[in-house]
């Protein structure tokens, strides 16, 4: 079986034409030149040559349309990619801005906590030093004072044996008083130390809560900016998609009129599609079928007008 010859192989004007290396503007220029040549052939009555020119023009228009569709698709892809890149740049800038704010607040809070802990340590050490340096004088008890007075009285009366007995009792009482005084001092030390530590814990808790509130506000501000940025690019994406859809519909509708012309050639009456008038049947059912086929083939959201 012989391979069917293509229009390009049959037409001498197309044989040496390499449209792959031609830009859209070059193809358009070639169409314009061929149209002028075709008109020249028509004026001279050279209709076969004019037919070859017409075939070349139709072929170039088809190639031009394909190129333009590819160019549009490529441009649409690049527009979407550029929008993604813009969004990524803005997201990165936003993250850098808020990361810097977070780091600054973190450094500020850490410095404040370190300073507070240093001051608290100094305060506690000062208390320890004061405790160690405090005199260990024992406050004599009433029993001790009574024994001492009794001892002194016996000495005056030169009752030394009895005075010796009282002296031993007095010294024993001193040991009791000293031991009691030490326990009281230790108890007082522990109570004061506990109060200081509790005060320090409250100071730390207050400072931590204060900075936590600032971190929470920072997080809210960041979230608000992120939502605002997402909304901004959501609108941009929607606008771009709608714009590209309109452009695609315009490109698709370039063959729209020809499609209707092909469909309406079988009918005698006329009807309106958009702003143009075409032949159509009187039957609304057949009109609806035509509209349905047009919508299917061109992906157009077109609703047919109803008869009055």
Short description:
The protein is 80% helix and 3% strand.
How many strands, what sense, and barrel or not for the largest sheet?
A: 2 strands, antiparallel
Would you identify the regions where 5 or more consecutive residues have pLDDT less than 50?
1-5, 263-271, 296-308
Number of domain units: 2
The end-to-end span amounts to: 57 Å
Q: What is the number of helices?
A: 8
Estimated share of beta-strand residues = under 5%
Calculate the mean pLDDT score and round it: 78
- What is the element string, with H for helices and E for strands? HHHHHHHEEH
Helix content: over 70%
Number of strands: 2
**Structural class, please?**
mainly alpha
Shape: rod-shaped
User: What's the Cα radius of gyration?
Assistant: 52 Å
**Strand order in the largest sheet:** 1-2
Can you tell me about this structure?
The chain is mainly alpha-helical. The protein folds into two domains: 258 residues, no CATH class; 44 residues, no CATH class. Helix 3 runs antiparallel to helix 4 and helix 4 runs antiparallel to helix 6.
Keywords summarizing the entry:
about 300 residues; mainly alpha; 2 domains; two-stranded antiparallel sheet
List the helices and strands and how they pair.
Elements: H1 7-10, H2 12-15, H3 24-43, H4 47-133, H5 142-156, H6 160-252, H7 256-264, E1 269-273, E2 276-280, H8 284-298
Antiparallel strand pairs: 1-2
Helix pairs in contact: 3-4, 4-6, 5-6
